[in-house]
Give the backbone structure.
Amino acid sequence: MNLNEFLNMGGYAFYVWTSYGITLLVLLANVIGPARLRRKLLVDIARAARRARKAA
Amino acid sequence: MFNNFFHKMASPKYFYRISGQLLPWLAVAFVLAAVAGLYYGLVVAPPDYQQGDSYRIMFVHVPAAWMSLFIYIVMAGAGAIGLVWRIKLAEVVSISSATVGASFTFLALVTGSIWGKPMWGTWWVWDARLTSELILLFLYLGIIALHNAIDDKRTAARATAILAIVGVINIPIIHYSVEWWNTLHQGPTVTKFDAPSIHISMLIPLLLMALAFKLYYALVVLMRARCEVLERERHTGWVKQLAESQ
């Protein structure tokens, strides 16, 4: 089997690769979301803690 | 000893530390299972004698649909445990499952639609399987919206748990819909009582992808649960200390 045959998926290339592409995007988004949220939370919490110390 | 383990795991600080150590291993295991599943599914497995290569959508569609049900049961179960025993970590796991569960439901619907177009000649029909799965997506979205609408985390957890438990009625309806009603959607091929009517060369990638998605869910639910723990515990000493040491 050569690469062109593989990519062509027996004529169903659009359907097969769209399905796998959307799946990849959704799975990536679900990992990137919480990873960024965690970093943001840690920055926010550290800033609030410093501010509270200064006020005291 | 086991009692001690569960007692410690229920402490947010301990959970945060252990889950952080677990994440890279889950990520590696997920990638290995997914690469193997994709290789066997897209390269090794032969084309289907009726559907040609279009059937390869099955290797993401079916595991995604399984996960949409599995995650819902975990979410409702953890919600019930949180409701009855007031275990904070159960509440956290329950709500952390909602987004990833909704994502898998969305994927099951979208990949099914993309598969339906060349095989059934239509993107969508209102048959029992498709409609009940769409209701599952709305249940997930309702649970996320309800949780976001309530500021107090513990009240939000209780409200979403009740909604999740009520929605469990939809799970057997989805599962048995292809038997109870005449559906365009085909019946089960793997989970029937006699031997699965699927060739081993197609069963292997299917099970590998199912394993990969399970590992992925464990990875994402832990990542989300860690954020939820940080938010809930943001006024405690250990979280402030952790944040300032980063």
